[in-house]
Design goal:
Blueprint (H helix, E strand, L loop, with lengths): L13 H15 L10 H29 L19 H9 L2 H32 L5 H10 L5 H14 L18 H11 L4 H9 L4 H12 L1 H16 L3 H6 L8 H11 L1 E2 L2 E2 L1 H21 L1 H10 L5
Antiparallel strand pairs: 1-2
Helix pairs in contact: 2-13, 3-13, 4-7, 4-10, 10-14, 12-13
Length: about 300
């Protein structure tokens, strides 16, 4: 600490400034004065994190490794192939319209994710902003729909789409999301409740309408939560096999999960399955989800941690 300090002018010496920064740093890291972080504890912490990361990534590493092996070595559990067979991926692209299925999955996934994000955000904003009698009861009814199994409504929903003439089209794969999702409505409502109500009241004084409040204030401030909803629904749509099995008969309309089912059925002959081809197709179907998750990882974590702050 410096002995000279000019209180009247508010100026501090460099020594005081440096010591103050060190004190703040210790406080941020949860350290008391004179306390040093334990190197042993840090080593243990990073070791556990590395082991858990290796545990969770091992299945995908095994999948990639097995897809690059010849058929006789697929299940030898060696992470480094003895013989590399990258032609497995070429065989997949030549044997099936994988690119068409890939594009179909992207179109359906983006449409399903965008529609459920917008519709659920509208309903969630209504429950968070408006005050009206029976609001909690109505919100409870919305949440109670999550207890209804999808198998119960599968046949009635199919009959509706069949009557509308949309069977063997991609519309039933995403159009249901136009009516929102109870889980995403709850998730977004929790986020909207954390926004200061004074922002909306000030905008109302300036003449902003309700849809203006939603579009100009609510949506920009809840971007992390919207990204969480988009990623969740995109993953759900990307991996969904039930709906394509029910509604699609034309192979040109297949999504990747439906196409993988076709590949799994096609590449078996004489009791022997061409597992190297099936695994190569599985890697192609899995990579986009990993890329999307890592691109939106920061917003994903922020949205998850923020939506539970207020009930």
């Amino acid at each position: 600490m410096a002995t000279t300090e000019q209180v009247g002018t508010g100026r501090l010496t460099s020594d005081v400034f440096v010591s103050g920064r060190r004190r703040v740093t210790r406080q941020r890291h949860g350290l008391l004065p004179g306390e040093r972080p334990s190197r042993v504890l840090s080593v243990i912490r990073y070791t556990v994190a590395i082991l858990l990361a290796a545990l969770f990534t091992y299945p995908f590493i095994w999948l990639v490794s097995a897809s690059l092996k010849p058929r006789a070595q697929v299940f030898d559990n060696a992470l480094i192939p003895k013989e590399f067979s990258p032609e497995n991926y070429i065989t997949v692209w030549q044997a099936a319209p994988v690119f068409t299925w890939f594009v179909n999955s992207i179109v359906v996934g983006v449409a399903a994710a965008a529609s459920v994000t917008i519709s659920s955000a509208l309903v969630a904003f209504g429950f968070a902003y408006f005050r009206f009698p029976g609001r909690n009861l109505l919100f409870g009814l919305v949440l109670s729909t999550m207890m209804l199994p999808g198998a119960v409504t599968m046949i009635p929903v199919y009959l509706i789409w069949d009557a509308l003439g949309f069977v063997n089209t991609q519309v039933p794969l995403w159009a249901n999301n136009l009516f929102g999702s109870a889980f995403f409505i709850f998730l977004l409502r929790q986020f909207f409740l954390t926004l200061p109500r004074e922002l909306f009241e000030a905008a109302r004084v300036d003449g902003c309408g309700y849809f203006g409040l939603f579009r100009r204030i609510a949506l920009p401030l809840c971007k992390p939560a919207l990204i969480v909803v988009f990623i969740f629904e995109f993953r759900e749509s990307w991996t969904d096999l039930i709906k394509p099995l029910i509604y699609l008969q034309d192979s040109a309309l297949f999504t990747l999960p439906r196409g993988l089912k076709t590949i799994l059925d096609s590449f078996g002959y004489g009791g022997e399955m061409k597992w190297e081809i099936v695994l190569a197709a599985s890697v192609i179907a899995t990579l986009p989800l990993i890329i999307i998750f890592f691109l939106g990882q920061r917003h994903f974590v922020e949205g998850i941690s923020t939506t539970g702050r207020k009930g």
